[in-house]
Amino acid sequence: MEPAPGPQEKYQLITRNLQEVLGEEKLMSILKERELKIYWGTATTGKPHVAYFVPMSKIADFLKAGCEVTILFADLHAYLDNMKAPWELLELRTRYYEQVIKAMLESIGVPLEKLRFVRGTDYQLSKEYTLDVYRLSSVVTQHDAKKAGAEVVKQVEHPLLSGLLYPGLQALDEEYLKVDAQFGGVDQRKIFTFAEKYLPSLGYAKRVHLMNPMVPGLTGSKMSSSEEDSKIDLLDRKEDVKKKLKKAFCEPGNVENNGVLSFIKHVLFPLKSEFVVLREEKWGGNKTYTAYEALEKDFAEQVVHPGDLKNSVEVALNKLLDPIREKFNCPELKKLSSAAYPTPSKAKPGEKGTKNSEPEDVIPSRLDIRVGKVISVEKHPDADSLYVEKIDVGEAEPRTVVSGLVHFVPKEQLQDRLVVLLCNLKPQKMRGVESQGMVLCASSVGEPRQVEPLDPPAGCCAGERVYVEGYEGGEPDEELKPKKKVFEKLQADFCISEDCVAQWKQRNFLTKLGTVSCKSLRGGSIS
């Protein structure tokens, strides 16, 4: 039997691979006296994906260090964050999270009996907690509340009051869960410093805060539930894992924003203390690494090929996912999964279905709408009313798009601007030039007709997904079939609100930075 780790060893286990610790002295002081009480919370919104193995791996470290660990399923937070989880789906999604998080922990060998699982609504609706929310709201400024949630709460043009409450509730959770420390991603830092500032004003202790780095997704940006290509779902089939890893950003020698390397560093190495690069004998055969730094060095020097790295991660990842897939292969959990996250073939709660599934299929997540940047604009050689544009949508090459905007938008106003592009229409020739997308525009209802291209929020990047509020999940069709008229059916309910926001059935068009809008055509249509 191994001897129990001492305070210094516990400290090393608790803090390894973290980006930042707030309250290091307090952490060491507690470890010298007793075991640390810590919690990790997750809002029950989009489907958990493989990046969730990063906090799971740290939870395994906490348990090895003797910590008392609480996992909070923050159901109320999920609703308060701009209703990322609709109220009617909240209970189903919380149950799904409970099942899938437990399955993940079991797959990496974490004993569940050593963990405490709590739902936010178990205590956040109590008289005492509610009173503390009011007490906190009497001392917190609007500026501080908005600033605290800036990296976590969905940012929209007209923020709801619920988003301002979110940081305060997360701060109070530390007191009501009776913990010494809170663990989360570095994107939570502003909420953590908010808690350190305001909890003492209610007479509660300042806690320790432990922060993981944000792990890049497969596209090189943050791994996100709402960006399908950036993440691997925990229930993805093996062939889907292979396909997504094959497309993953993993440039030879480039260790920056490399999601494949990051996954090895933050998940696979901590779990196994080694990583095996699988390769054919003619390329040197398999090589076992016992230190991540050595693997990163070999990759940077191009001793390890991206293809071999991806194949090796694929094998290791499928070993983690196999027990989760097996658990969710039972009828009860299959039913829970489809109810919590309705697929395009299911009607949403509150919507009437029919015997024919086609009307239920027509939902906005089937559209591949992205932010595009106009690289060049030229008049069509054979049509006076058409432009031929080159538009960057985050792919290897810009797309050629033909738009009938000559009489409405001067050429110089299109050049270098951000637009909203529908990318999965079937390409078609327009007067001899093949158009590979449609620039979405607001149109006035009356005469004379006015047209304005839709504007993504400032700061968006080319290729960023545009989605309709409440339909963040779901994979777009690879190509919309003209005979099915999916776009046309959805377009019938597209409109511009009185605030100039693009909407479908009164639900806003969004990117992760906020709402899509137009300049002035209130009450207009979108085409």
Feature tags:
Rossmann fold, 527 residues, alpha+beta, 19% strand, 10-stranded antiparallel β-sheet, ATP-binding, globular, ATP binding, 34% helix, OB fold (Dihydrolipoamide Acetyltransferase, E2P), Tyrosyl-Transfer RNA Synthetase, 3 domains, 6-stranded mixed β-sheet
CATH level-four homologous superfamily name of the largest domain = HUPs
Mean pLDDT: 87
**Computed Rg:** 25 Å
User: In total, how many domains does the architecture comprise?
Assistant: 3
Could you tell me how far the N terminus lies from the C terminus, measured between alpha carbons in angstroms?
A: 70 Å
Protein structure class: alpha+beta
- The number of helices is 17
Fraction of helical residues? 25-40%
Beta-strand residue fraction = 15-25%
Number of E-type strands = 23
Overall spatial form: globular
Largest beta-sheet characterization: 10 strands, antiparallel
Identify the CATH architecture of the largest domain. 3-Layer(aba) Sandwich
Supply the CATH class of the largest domain. Alpha Beta
Which fold name corresponds to the CATH topology of the largest domain? Rossmann fold
Point out poorly predicted stretches.
Answer: 344-360
